[in-house]
Write a structure and sequence with these properties.
single chain; alpha+beta; about 10% strand; five-stranded mixed β-sheet; DNA/RNA_pol_sf; Alpha-Beta Plaits; Nucleotidyltransferase, domain 5; about 900 residues; elongated; four-stranded antiparallel β-sheet
Length: about 900
């Protein structure tokens, strides 16, 4: 439809004249056109009525289809009104008043919304074009007769009629301008000013109430109908406006309806690129630039940061909504500014999966799902399709099909995992280092501030090279899908992603920031609040510019001295780290359920709980001491089941004891981020014949007893450490001791045990439990052998003359006959002691005292088997102090070569 303003402008709207001189050629061409015949107002109104009748019919058809009710007395949908029907529509009277009444009656039937001046606006707003079309000056137009309005009104009527007649050709330039401006909407402000400036001709009363369409574009009108149309046809309401068509839905409505119905079955699983591209364009344009500019301003005044956090979160939410798989490739230029690494830049555009050989698949994998999983899988696959993470493909001869399974997320949703176990066997493995929670704990300083940024769909941001996507396929409901980006389950994915992030982290480190990234979790730290805010801002802007999407919910933008990252609660005030409450409770319940299970559990379930236990070690100080019996049971059961994780297994008593420890301690356990510097240092060493130790220039050592000497040297080294602790730290509490040794025993004790040797693991556990009882923190460091001379000497020193002892059985019989029960052995070592309580002549791990001559013997019931050199001193002390004793001296000696009994 033409516009009321269009003919009003040509009648007398001088305000829109171009500031440039009118085109004289067009003016002359316009003047040479034959004069239009006198317009027929009634005919124009009849044609308007006819056109609006068609629209009313269409509305009624759509509403009837929505209600599933057929229209009665109406002609078939899409059938054009015949000339007779049009004549009937206009046969209500022979006067213009009756025609106008007929028009208004039909208009009332067909309109849902009315607005004053609501003619469909299709006028060009270019003043230059209008001036050229009018081809006259402002004064000339003022002198034009009113009949020009009648000519234009007649043209309007002809434009709205079904069977338009055409006149002679006009100049091509004029035609081009008309075509260029046709269908373009007039600016609303300009429209308002025109209507205020110019009035409607008095002899055109029908134009005041024609209200052919609401004063909105056709698209807005069609959207008003979307709720009334069946879902399968709703797509026609989203069609672009067709400026050369007088109909709301264009000239090909029947074809559009057919196409919409055929496409409806695919609409739920296919993304709408037009809408997403439009939104992405908006975000990458003004919105991103505005947020970046805002962050730069905040960087210079960090006190304003918290006020703008809601703005940042809204921006991030919009990014999450419009996420597209492989989006970092669209930011390639930004990557080239921070790295020139060819491998990283290649991965940005598309990761090439490096294989040892061409993957070959002989059989398709089987997969089973629980009934409730089908609906979840449908939803998850639909989400992935919408994001462009997966797409439907046709089969290929070289494709590789894998199975899929679900894994629950902490928020209750699920993650679809591609089971690439078989395919991963052909993927090349490269060793690499990934930062972990242990790296973070080494960075935390007293009272520092921390924040974290979580990358949403991190793997999905990295595209896979198109030629390699055929290896990442799965089948769902007889349809083949393939991943277009890094999937969860690809063995090389962690390394690829970690390496991609390295340039970003290096850039932040060069700016002086403390940052660590573990896959999609970025830990940020600053010694002060302001420094941490600047770290957050710089990291945010960099990652956003590189194409990553930061999760608005999982990220912690506001710096704090307590933060949850990677499942642990870090506190820089107390310098501790512990499991989050939810994780601790979950682990406690899992351990109790496994320990008290009435029937054997699968190896897979036991392995799952072992995984939870091991993952909790950074926040449970003594956790590594209490899982290896359980792990040993699992390893043995898996060996017997020939690798079948679904086989069942029984738990040993030792494994159940460990599970009970976790039940009792996991909720209250924590780990210190730092320990005080060691207050004591003990050096030990061992040989196959004995052990030695040194502490504060005091040395000791001894021979192995027969049962100890047969063990492996690694065990003997650990035993030497334990003996050194018992010797020099028996009276110490609440302290930190550093042990020094030159063997592999260092690692076993530092790791609180080993799975490679039961006897060494038991010794490590025994050492640590001894320290726990005394609240001693123990660290063991390696020392080169050439610096461990004293302990090494003591371990190899042979002192057999001091290790003599009587036969225990004969001594016991003798004491019974003498009716004497000694309480202490005054001259003994851990090797030749005759009674549990003894006194050694040098530092000894189990001796109750050192040097018997420093004690009072008056009230002691003791047994003495002294060395030759102290027999005289011993007898003198006995005579002086008395007491109850049994002294045994070796025969054949120059003095006291006899047994004496003192009472």
């Amino acid at each position: 439809t033409l516009d009321y303003i269009s003919f009003m402008d040509q009648e007398g709207s001088h305000g829109l004249a171009s500031t440039e001189a009118p085109d004289q050629a067009i003016t002359e061409a316009s003047r040479k056109q034959p004069e239009a015949p006198k317009p027929d107002i009634q005919e124009a109104l009849a044609n308007i009525d006819t056109t609006m009748g068609k629209m009313a019919d269409l509305f009624e058809i759509l509403i009837a289809e929505k209600a599933n009710k057929p229209l009665q007395g109406e002609r078939p949908t899409g059938k054009k009104r015949t000339a007779a029907e049009r004549e009937d529509d206009t046969a209500g009277g022979d006067e213009s008043e009756s025609e106008t009444s007929s028009f208004r009656s039909r208009g009332k039937r067909q309109r849902r919304e009315q607005s004053p001046d609501a003619i469909s606006i299709h006028a060009g707003e270019s003043e230059d074009d209008l001036a050229q079309l009018l081809g006259s000056s402002e004064k000339e137009r003022e002198n034009e007769p009113d009949t020009e309005a009648e000519h234009l009104l007649n043209d309007l009527a002809k434009g709205l009629s079904d069977d338009e007649s055409t006149g002679p050709n006009i100049s091509q330039k004029l035609a081009d301008i008309a075509l260029k401006r046709w269908g373009k909407q007039l600016n609303p402000e300009k429209l308002k000013s025109i209507l205020e400036k110019y009035t409607r001709p008095e002899n055109c009363p029908a134009l005041q109430t024609t209200n052919m369409l609401v004063e909105t574009p056709n698209r807005d009108n069609s959207q008003l109908l979307a709720s009334l149309v069946d879902t399968e046809y709703s797509a026609i309401c989203s069609l672009e406006d067709q400026p050369n068509s007088k109909l709301l839905f264009g000239n090909d409505l029947a074809k559009n309806l057919k196409d919409a119905k055929e496409a409806s079955s695919l609409s739920s699983s296919m993304k709408r690129p037009t809408q997403e591209q439009s939104k992405e364009k908006t975000l990458e344009g003004g919105t991103r630039e505005e947020v970046t500019e805002l962050l730069k301003q905040i960087r210079n005044s960090v006190s304003e940061f918290e006020k703008y956090i809601p703005v940042i979160l809204t921006y991030l939410q919009n990014l999450c909504t419009s996420f597209k798989a492989g989006r970092v490739a669209e930011h390639f230029t930004a990557w080239t500014k921070i790295t020139q690494d060819s491998e990283i830049l290649s991965n940005i555009t598309g990761v090439v999966i490096e294989c040892t050989e061409t993957p070959v698949q002989l059989n398709l994998p089987g997969q089973k799902f629980h009934p409730h999983e089908y609906q979840i899988l449908d939803a998850e696959i639909s989400k992935l399709v919408g994001k462009g993470v997966v797409n439907k493909v046709q089969p290929e001869t070289t494709q590789f099909i894998s199975s899929i399974f679900l894994r629950p997320k902490p928020d209750g949703s699920h993650r679809l995992i591609l089971n690439l176990k078989k395919f991963n066997e052909t993927v090349v493995y490269h060793h690499f280092k990934m930062d972990s929670i242990y790296d973070i704990t080494k960075l935390v300083t007293k009272d520092c501030f921390m924040a974290s940024l979580d990358l949403k769909d991190a793997y999905y941001s990295i595209p896979i090279k198109a030629s390699d996507r055929k290896y990442l396929r799965f089948i769902w409901k007889k349809e083949i899908y393939q991943f277009t980006c890094l999937p969860n389950g690809l063995s090389c994915a962690p390394r690829v992603f970690t390496k991609i992030l390295k340039p970003a982290l290096a850039t932040l480190h060069s700016m002086g920031h403390i940052s660590v990234a573990h896959i999609d979790d970025c830990y940020l730290q600053g010694q002060t609040y302001d420094k941490c805010v600047v770290n957050v801002l710089d990291t945010f802007m960099l990652l956003d510019n590189l194409g990553f999407v930061i999760h608005p919910i999982k990220s912690i933008l506001k710096p704090s001295q307590q933060i949850i990252t990677l499942g642990f609660l870090i506190n820089s005030l107390t310098m501790t780290i512990r499991l989050t409450s939810d994780k601790a409770i979950d682990l406690k319940k899992a351990c109790k359920a496994l320990r008290t299970a009435s029937k054997p559990q699968t190896i897979r379930e036991v392995a799952r709980i072992i995984g939870k236990i091991v993952a909790s070690f950074p926040g449970v100080m003594y956790g590594p001491l209490y899982y290896r019996e359980l792990d040993k049971d699992k390893t043995q059961a898996l060996k017997e089941a020939k690798g079948d994780f679904d086989a069942t297994m029984a738990l040993s008593q030792g494994a159940k004891t460990e599970l009970h420890w976790w039940e009792c301690h996991v909720e209250n356990s924590f780990q210190k981020l730092t320990h005080e510097e060691p207050q004591h240092k003990i050096t030990t060493d061992a040989s196959l014949s004995g052990w030695g130790a040194e502490y504060q220039d005091i040395s000791t050592g001894g021979m192995w007893i027969k049962s100890e000497a047969t063990n492996h040297i690694n065990y003997l080294e650990m035993l030497a450490i334990f003996l050194g602790l018992q010797t020099f730290a028996k009276n110490l509490n609440n302290t930190h001791i550093r042990m020094c040794d030159n063997t592999t025993a260092v690692n076993v004790i530092n790791h609180m045990g080993t799975s490679h040797s039961d006897i060494c693991n038991n010794m490590a556990k025994q050492i640590w439990e001894w320290c726990i009882d005394k609240n001693i923190w123990l660290t063991v460091a390696h020392i080169p052998g050439k610096q461990n001379l004293v302990a090494d000497y003591e371990s190899r020193r042979h002192q057999r003359e001091s290790e003599w002892m009587l036969n225990k059985a004969l001594l016991s019989d003798t004491l019974i006959k003498l009716n004497f029960s000694p309480e202490i052995d005054l001259f003994a070592t851990r090797v030749n002691k005759q009674f549990p309580k003894y006194v050694a002549y040098r530092p000894d791990p189990n001796a109750c005292a050192i040097d018997a001559f420093t004690l009072s013997w008056a009230n002691l019931k003791f047994y003495a088997f002294p060395p030759f050199s102290v027999i005289g001193a011993m007898l003198a002390k006995i005579q002086k102090e008395g007491g109850q004793e049994y002294v045994c001296c070796r025969t054949g000696q120059p003095r006291a070569g006899m047994q004496k009994r003192f009472t």
